[in-house]
Design brief:
Shape: rod-shaped
Structural class: mainly alpha
Helix content: over 70%
Strand content: under 5%
Number of helices: 1
Number of strands: 0
Oligomer: single chain
Amino acid sequence: MLDYLKSFHNINTYLILSIILLFLVLALDYL
């Protein structure tokens, strides 16, 4: 169960990082 939660947390972290990168790319496009 703990390993499942750890992998889920890692997936969430990568998801958040990819969303932040996407916003950065969009912001650079608008500049």
